[in-house]
Amino acid sequence: MSAPANSDTSPRGPGGLLRMNAIVKDFPGTRALDRVDFDVHRGEIHALIGENGAGKSTLMNVLAGRYRDYAGRVRLAGRPVRLTNPRQAHALGIAVIHQDLNVLGNLTVAENIMLGAEPRGRLPGTVDRRRLRRQAGEALRPLGFRLPLDAPVHRLSVARQQMVAIAQAVRTNARLLILDEPTASLGRHEVDRLFAVMRDLKARGIGLVYITHRLAELPRIADRVSVLRDGRMVGARRMAETRLSELTRLMLGRDLAEMFPPKTNTPGEVVLSVRGLTRPGVFEDVSFDVRAGEIVGIAGLVGSGRTEIVRAIFGADAAAGTCTYEGRPLGRRSPRRCRAAGIGMVPANRKTQGSITGRSVSENITIGILGRLSRRGGLLCPGAVRRAAMESIDFMGVEPRLPGLSIDHLSGGNQQKAIVARWLAAGPRVLLFDEPTQGIDVGTKAQMYRLMVDLAARGRAVLLISSEFIELASLADRVLIVQHGRIVEDRAGPVSEEALFEACATETG
Hints:
Elements: E1 16-27, E2 30-41, E3 45-49, H1 56-63, E4 71-76, E5 79-81, H2 86-91, E6 94-97, H3 109-113, H4 129-140, H5 158-171, E7 176-180, H6 188-203, E8 207-211, H7 218-221, E9 224-229, E10 232-238, H8 244-252, E11 270-279, E12 283-291, E13 295-299, H9 306-313, E14 320-325, E15 328-329, H10 335-341, E16 343-346, H11 350-354, H12 361-366, H13 382-396, H14 412-426, E17 430-434, H15 442-457, E18 461-465, H16 469-475, E19 478-483, E20 486-492, H17 497-505
Parallel strand pairs: 3-8, 3-9, 6-7, 7-8, 13-18, 13-19, 16-17, 17-18
Antiparallel strand pairs: 1-2, 1-4, 4-5, 9-10, 11-12, 11-14, 14-15, 19-20
């Protein structure tokens, strides 16, 4: 039987590692944390979930020493502590691995692992490179990682960069490890490997806080789960005794079934036609059509070439073959030409490809329609820009409603809303969505689902890439199965998520 929402689900006794009691954190005009209790035990994986803006990051930033002005009590290994800066938290054995990995891409694997503890060479100011490599290798060995010690980290996959960050944390004798959305950019096999590492760290007595939006992963890895909503702790559960539907209700106040809206679209004429799209070594002879009022899904395991196919359609990467829009060949494709023709793309990596960092929410939303917002002579009309931005902010529900705020200060879900708002303002007839719900909260996911169904109902054509098979099964009229850069099947809906996974994982030919 599940524990009551505010009960203490943690075991008593000497296993206690962290206990946070009645934590309060205020920002101007907002209470981000309202008397939150949270605890972690040695050798435990404790998941922390909640919608974007629920307070997860704020709570972890208190724990990481980023805020001095919080109220409440923190005990670490039974001793009271006052966390006032990141260096102090690190010295106490608290390590954070952020979704945007805190590794230095220009340094080697060994240099990253030993950062701050480089063995000195014989001459002043030098590093003993041989000892550095040996010590980095010793840090990797207990984790079972095989990494090229001399390779620059930027050349590694996201999964391998994550291994570097974990090795660095464990090397510094971290006893509490916080993983923020660690599986957001990983494929199924990479997730399996990460989970094996987490279980090994757990067996060594390290406490882990696991922040995720992928609720389906929780039964595989979490011992306990705590739910934040609007800055308050609304539930603490033992995972083995809890259904995912219960967690969804705690997060949202409604059931999971309500996330996917009923479909009312009717596919019409072909709007986008792709023929013989080829990029040697990446994908080959890709051909398909997308109709007005249709949602076409692209399913494939990580590395199958699905993202590369969509990028080539949009002209972000060069490829042979033809793309026809409303019966007219697009010719030499580029993002600018595709946008002008009526094709929009929401990329998978919103931080590096989707948003214009360092610029305001208003600038990010209106960048594609500045011509419509200018007076004669090309001078921008500030009033028109603000009105257009506020209309999009209100339509997408971007919070906070501050058009002048830097987009960097928005949560991941609200950044995604702003990026989608930019394309909706441009009015494309074809929208390419690459992992539109990656790393965003359940409530924003539901909003994206409603948006895509509504776009199709209004006659727009939607091409959807997702690693979540339930999204493809629930939203797509047809699903293209991609393996090793080839479309091996065009499967009409309805189709189950289990069938989609089997189709992607079972080699054909």
